[in-house]
Amino acid sequence: xxxxIKNSVSKTITLWEKGWAxxxxxxxxxxxxxxxxxxxxxGSDLITSSLGVRKYFEETFSSVQGVTASVxxxxxxxxxxxxxxxxxxxxFDLIDRQKIPARVVWGFRKxxxxxxxxxxxSSIIAxxxxx
Length: 131
Known about the structure:
Distance between the termini: 41 Å
CATH topology: Nuclear Transport Factor 2, Chain: A
Largest sheet: 6 strands, mixed
Shape: globular
Radius of gyration: 15 Å
Helix content: 25-40%
Number of helices: 3
Number of strands: 6
Structural class: alpha+beta
Number of domains: 1
CATH class: Alpha Beta
Order of helices and strands: HHEEHEEEE
CATH architecture: Roll
């Protein structure tokens, strides 16, 4: 994995986390490609644009306030000079100091010198499966 690319993608992830910390759908949506694939952690709809991502987070932040998210990257795969896949964990930090873990896989594409999220899938880890 090219370290320069890894550092650039890490800056995009940090900006995504900052959007959560500030409750800013605008900042979060700014790190997605205009056309993208976004399956959110708790939603069931496929969102296909950065505008849709922004609307999703506007609705999310209006109904759930004070939640932040942090990312622990676990594995990086550089497919080309312009595409990187990152797998890891998201942790949603609730007001009551409870943490909810979720898996995340992001595809990052380099566009006009910026590394942006082109695909995003996350899911909460099931505590136990019904028998």
